[in-house]
Amino acid sequence: xxxxxxxxVVVLAVAxxxxxxxxxxxxxxxxxxxxxxxxxxxxAVPPDTHQSVGCGDGHRVFTERGAAGVIVWxxxxxxxxxxxxxxxxxxxxxxxxxFADLVGTYTIWVRIHGPNKPGxxxxxxxxxxxxxxxxxxxxxNLSRTGQDRFRFPxxxxxxxxxEFWLLDPGTDFRIAEIRLYLATN
Length: 185
Known about the structure:
The strands form two sheets. The chain has a six-stranded mixed sheet with strand order 4-5-3-10-7-8. It has one domain (32-182). The chain is mainly β and 185 residues long. The chain has helices spanning 2-23, 89-92; strands spanning 36-45, 60-64, 69-75, 82-85, 96-100, 106-113, 121-127, 138-143, 149-151, 163-169, 175-182. It contains two helices and eleven strands.
């Protein structure tokens, strides 16, 4: 009986010590605090290989290597955030499409991944229209040799309008991670 009691106490103690470590989910350095609502990868693929790519359960958007791509963000309060069309205009002639469900709620954080090379860059222009003459909602120039992560000051749909993103990768760009956090007020 003493052995059983001792074994029970040891197992319980180990479980209680391990519990906090198994449930914690730290955000990457520089990411906003708060709950991660959605994330996807923006991936550059070689020309003529897009036939073999998949949307990754709605968590990937593809552009052709070295070519700018456009993402259209649209409000749809009837469904959760999801990638509807994962191929940008550089691949199929139409912008990629992502639907989100809440206005002015998501803080956007972007981090570029891949090799530390001068051509591993990603320029993002957020606009209220598709002509991109002005980046009214914000812009950023990311580089693996300089600033490789950025938090946009304006939340997604802050002005209640659809958004257009022009993502212009450098010659060595391969992948960036884009995260949406529930904004804290």
